[in-house]
Amino acid sequence: MANDNIVLSIGAHPDDAEFMCTGTLALLRERGWQVHIATMAPGDCGTVEYSREEISRIRKDEAACAAAMLDGTYHCLECGDIFIMYDRPTLLKTIALVRKVRPKIVFALSPSDYMVDHEMASKLAQTACFCCGVVNVETPGAEPFEPIPHLYYADPPEGKDILGGEIKPSTLVDTTSVMEKKEKMLCCHESQRNWLLKHHGIDEYVDAMKALGRKRGAEVGSAYAEGFRQHLGHAYPQSNILKEELGDLVHVK
Q1: What dihedral do alpha carbons 226, 163, 119, 253 form, nearest 10°?
Q2: DSSP assignment, residue 79?
Q3: Is the dihedral angle over the CA atoms 43, 104, 18, 169 positive or is it negative?
Q4: CA-CA distance, 154 to 12, in Å (whole number)?
Q5: pLDDT tens digits for 195-238?
Q6: 3-class secondary-structure state, position 74
Q7: How many other CB atoms are found less than 10 A from the CB of residue 228?
Q8: How big is the CA angle at 78 (ends 77 and 81), to the nearest 5 degrees?
Q9: Distance between CA 107 and CA 242 in Å, rounded?
Q10: Would you tell me how many other CB atoms lie within 10 Å of the CB of residue 134?
Q11: Beta-sheet strands, E only, within the chain
């Protein structure tokens, strides 16, 4: 029998999921869910040493390696770094992805994030979920389906919006038991340490991820947690499927 418990993370770049939601993906995988991790772009500008073609190949290989740690599938929609657009061609690619994967849960990036690529990826994910069953939006080879997936927005880096305001997640998932797996998945992205050191001033790649995990964990009395906000607008599912699936590991505010 086919497994229809499928979760899809839609990020902008390779390693977005590993920073923000792979702890929750790992917990769902332990409960039998199929995992898909997608990025809008291959990370073709995240380098100070490789050509666009070289870094794209490297980063997609790293992303596929990380996804494989959850027996998952990696997808890249082949947009360009810095040029992820909310336009018809990109929307059609994103809608087609959602229709092919047919997830029950979609994780997206924060609507307010430190870079516009992330915000555009978030908007694309939102519309793709809404349009998964809209039959007059045609995506040859990817059939429409219902219902709309449960959509959750992950924390932005440091838990801050673009003006430095604190994001307050409504759902926190205790990821303490899978932090080792999350760390190993992030470490698959070896190419990014030098890039973040040069451009962001971040030397401790893993520590930056853990710092937000500890911050969210402290809010629920655990060592580590991941924070999410559920999209609860009209027509989207209103039940908290993460709470239903993960039970006491999920804290709802």
Answers
A1: 30
A2: P
A3: positive
A4: 12
A5: 676 766 665 778 889 999 999 999 999 999 999 999 999 999 99
A6: strand
A7: 25
A8: 115
A9: 11
A10: 12
A11: 6-11, 34-39, 73-76, 105-108, 150-154, 171-174, 225-230, 250-252
Q: Return the CATH superfamily for domain 6-252.
A: LmbE-like (3.40.50.10320)
Mean pLDDT computed over every residue of the chain = 95
DSSP-assigned letter for residue 233: S
Sheet of 105-108, strands arranged across: 73-76, 34-39, 6-11, 105-108, 150-154, 225-230, 171-174, 250-252
DSSP structure string for 140-202: TTS---SSPPEEEEEPPGGGB-TTSPBP--SEEEE-GGGHHHHHHHHHT-TTHHHHHHHHT--
CA distance 138 to 140: 6
Rounded Cα–Cα distance for residues 78 and 84 (Å): 9
- Tokens 């993906």 belong to 25
Q: How far is CA 97 from the centre of its chain?
A: 14
Q: Flag whether pLDDT at 6 surpasses 80.
A: yes
Q: How far apart are CA 138 and CA 101, in angstroms?
A: 16
